[in-house]
């Protein structure tokens, strides 16, 4: 927390109360004092900045445990620490069950008291930070942040609405770059499991002999290299969502174990004899033809039915060209912040080029095109000449002015342009081209380009 924490000291012994208050003030805390539980409740009702209440367990009138219960009813986020004598430790332990943060026995060392309260203040700050970050994630990935008003996107929104109001499994299908993970995050962060973790895994990026261990965990010594226990990603996603990207790249044998986990809601780590219950919502995605994979016996049909309780098909960008102006505006706002620029818009000519382009890389490619214009351009309005040559040279569907190159020539030219625009930065060049860095490295090697 940014401000100094406030401690309310509740103690009927004036000397003890004054001593504790002085100690906390010397350590930089804001301090309030109350001689009784009744006065403490009035103080808590009067102000909203109290973080920790330090109260005696035994006091005339209302005792510390009753005060604790009232505080948790009035201000559940306020932490309570009880001071007790050795003969009342059992009562203090009982108070922990009612929500007390900790207790300390009299007579206590001042360092012990400061350490106890300091630890609680630190944990409270961490809880506030987690809450703030979760709120930011919910704002960033909420349902209405997905851009597009086209008819085909309206159908997507209806499915997202159904998915976020349920705990059913979801299968998201669509070409690369269409925004499948964004849809998955909208379902999670705007849905019933928003307070739980969102755990993504790209099934294509994990070695086939390790993916089972990654998902379900393992016991130490279960296989060569298992030097310590691993809980696995299913367990990490407990109470939240596990996002299985590129699900069709999952090994066939692992698919059977995934199916059982979905059906039984239990998992067993590799090398473990015990099963553990889980509470995980699974969202999967793919850019491949699911039905073909089923016919080719590379994807289990029964797993498909289990995953596709709700199926969402995200359309390619070429099928929703009317959404391109809004997407461009969004990316301009994003890159104005990234590049510390003030680009106010895009020229009609440049927007026409973007609207007519086929966008095989979909929204990701469009984002890269706008970033390219920011990287090479200097004007306050994106001009046609600031777009990639492969965009500006193509009239789009129905045009006749295309200057043909071989695919190899075109790829090399694009690679050189991207590397030049990115000033040799491979990560940025990959983003401009809408590809992964490993693929960029292969292209550089294939065309024998120097760094």
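Sequence proposed for the structure above (451 residues):
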């Amino acid at each position: 927390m940014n401000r100094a924490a406030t401690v309310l000291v509740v103690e009927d012994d004036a000397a003890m109360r004054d001593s504790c208050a002085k100690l906390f003030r010397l350590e930089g805390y804001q301090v309030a004092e109350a001689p009784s539980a009744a006065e403490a409740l009035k103080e808590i009702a009067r102000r909203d900045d109290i973080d920790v209440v330090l109260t005696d367990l035994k006091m005339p009138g209302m005792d510390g445990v009753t005060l604790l219960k009232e505080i948790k009813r009035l201000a559940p986020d306020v932490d309570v620490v009880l001071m007790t004598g050795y003969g009342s430790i059992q009562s203090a332990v009982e108070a922990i069950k009612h929500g007390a943060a900790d207790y300390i026995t009299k007579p206590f060392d001042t360092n012990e008291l400061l350490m106890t309260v300091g630890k609680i203040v630190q944990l409270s700050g961490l809880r506030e930070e987690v809450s703030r970050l979760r709120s930011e994630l919910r704002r960033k990935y909420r349902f209405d942040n997905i851009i597009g008003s086209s008819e085909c996107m309206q159908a997507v929104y209806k499915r997202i609405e159904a998915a976020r109001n349920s705990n059913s499994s979801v299968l998201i299908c669509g070409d690369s770059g269409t925004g499948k993970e964004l849809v998955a995050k909208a379902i999670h962060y705007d849905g019933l499991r928003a307070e739980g973790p969102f755990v993504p895994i790209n099934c294509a990026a994990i070695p086939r002999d390790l993916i089972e261990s990654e998902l379900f965990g393992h016991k130490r010594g279960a296989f060569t290299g298992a030097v310590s226990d691993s809980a696995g990603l299913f367990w990490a996603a407990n109470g939240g969502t596990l996002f299985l990207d590129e699900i069709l790249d999952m090994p066939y044998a692992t698919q059977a174990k995934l199916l059982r986990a979905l059906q039984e809601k239990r998992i067993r780590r590799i090398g473990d004899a015990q099963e553990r219950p889980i509470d995980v919502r699974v969202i999967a995605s793919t850019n491949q033809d699911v039905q073909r994979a089923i016919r080719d016996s590379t994807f289990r049909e029964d797993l498909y039915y289990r995953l596709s309780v709700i199926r969402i098909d995200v359309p390619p960008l070429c099928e929703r060209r009317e959404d391109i102006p809004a997407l461009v505006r969004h990316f301009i706002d994003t890159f104005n912040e990234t590049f510390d620029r003030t680009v106010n818009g895009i020229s009609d000519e440049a927007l026409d080029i973007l609207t007519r382009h086929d966008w095989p890389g979909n929204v990701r490619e469009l984002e890269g095109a706008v970033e390219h214009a920011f990287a090479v351009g200097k004007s306050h309005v994106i001009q046609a000449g600031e777009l990639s040559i492969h965009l500006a040279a193509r009239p789009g569907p129905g045009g006749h002015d295309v200057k043909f190159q071989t695919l190899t020539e075109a790829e090399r030219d694009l690679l050189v342009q991207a590397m030049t625009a990115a000033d040799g930065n491979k990560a940025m060049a990959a983003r401009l081209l809408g590809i992964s860095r490993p693929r960029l490295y292969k292209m550089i090697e294939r065309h024998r380009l120097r760094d």
